[in-house]
Design brief:
- The protein folds into 2 domains: 114 residues, Phosphorylase Kinase, domain 1 (2-Layer Sandwich); 175 residues, Transferase(Phosphotransferase) domain 1 (Transferase(Phosphotransferase), domain 1).
- With 338 residues, it is an alpha+beta fold.
- The strands form 4 sheets. A 5-stranded antiparallel β-sheet has the order 1-2-3-5-4. Strands 6-8-9 form a 3-stranded antiparallel β-sheet. Strands 7-10 form a two-stranded antiparallel sheet.
- It contains 12 helices and 12 strands.
- Pfam families: Pkinase.
- Keywords: ATP-binding, Kinase, Nucleotide-binding, Serine/threonine-protein kinase, Transferase.
- This is Protein kinase domain-containing protein.
- It comes from Ostreobium quekettii.
């Protein structure tokens, strides 16, 4: 079991290479779940929310984060940002401060995983979201080189760390968590937000060892639209077959990619391992398994899991995106309706 659980630990981000590249950069620990392997570069000028983003930036000009908050120790870090504790000087309330490098407008330096437009897009999306199962943004500050995003503090850490520590979830626990995840995804989709990186690492617990209050986080790869071009983003193990289409086969994909990722997430909750991994996180073996939805409910662990739970996973891990359950439909599945 420990060998299986090691497969779920988070790891550094890497990015899909541009044409002619040598391939994605490998993380230091290949047994861990990967983060984003690509970011599209849609310029803010083409974003339908262009004016609102500009006004958003204008509204914080001249404000200094350290006048309002005392920044503390590092909580975590990833390919896009570092998260530190932040104590509000007036109220004494604890928050999390996500510090993101802010590149110059119109350019992206080598090694930078997010352009300035993408950073501002993440802040813009997160600032508009208000739901019990989505981590809330309180406010933000901009300097010449960094963005400081103040978020509600989630004291319980990520779901992946919870599972690595305690083992796979029982069906009762998974049902409790997954219903909340689907509520969050349903809310996003109603707002025409496609998360594009739903995974265990991006599900946070409000309090330690408490699965009754979990929330989705990390909108660095999210998009506000009905359909998205075939830009390959997200986390390889959780990416839908739609995202792996390439060349002449590359097509538009939409909200259903979040539902595939939700299916992978539920599988991981119950099994403590990835459904498609084989031969390395970026291997051709894993790719072929994903595009053919080649996974199994094998081993003694699955023998004790209900057919209803397996049916829900199978209804989400469907290659045809038009046949995948929506978030609303998944919430009505018999396994969750108990």
């Amino acid at each position: 079991m420990k060998r299986l659980l090691r497969c779920l630990r988070p790891a550094p981000s890497f990015e899909e290479p541009s044409p002619g590249g040598t391939g994605p950069r490998k993380g230091a620990d290949d047994v861990r779940g990967r983060q984003a392997f690509g970011c599209d570069t849609l310029p803010i000028e083409q974003n339908p929310d262009k004016e609102r983003v500009k006004q958003m930036c204008k509204s914080v000009q001249g404000r200094k984060v350290r006048r309002v908050y005392e920044l503390g120790d590092k909580i975590g870090s990833g390919g896009f940002a570092t998260v530190v504790g932040a104590l509000h000087k007036g109220s004494g309330k604890e928050y999390a401060c996500k510090i993101i490098k802010l590149p110059k407008a119109g350019c992206r330096e080598p090694g930078e995983l997010m352009s300035r437009d993408q950073v501002l897009r993440e802040i813009h999306i997160a600032s508009a979201l208000q739901h019990d199962n989505v981590v809330r943004l309180k406010e933000f500050f901009l300097s010449k080189k960094k963005a400081y995003v103040i978020m509600e503090m989630m004291f319980g850490g990520s779901l992946v760390n919870y599972i690595v520590k305690k083992g796979p979830l029982s069906e009762e626990e998974a049902r409790l968590v997954f219903a909340q995840v689907l509520q969050g995804i349903s809310y996003l989709h109603k707002k025409n937000v496609i998360h594009r990186d739903v995974k265990l690492e991006n599900i946070l617990l409000a309090f330690p060892d408490d699965l009754r209050n979990v929330k989705l986080t990390d909108f660095g790869l999210s998009k506000v639209c009905q359909n998205v071009t075939g830009t390959r983003v997200g986390t390889p193990e959780y990416a839908a077959p739609d995202m792996y289409q390439s060349g002449d086969n590359r097509q538009f994909y939409g909200k259903s990619v979040d539902m595939w990722a939700a299916g992978v997430t539920l599988y991981c909750m119950l099994a403590g391992k990835q459904p498609f991994r084989g031969g390395g996180a970026d291997s051709e073996v894993m790719l072929q398994r994903i595009v053919h939805a080649d996974y199994e409910f094998d081993g003694p662990l699955w023998d004790g899991i209900s057919e209803s739970a397996k049916d829900l996973i199978s209804s989400l891990l469907v290659c045809d995106s038009n046949k995948r359950l929506t978030a609303e439909a998944a919430l009505k599945h018999p396994w969750l309706a108990r």
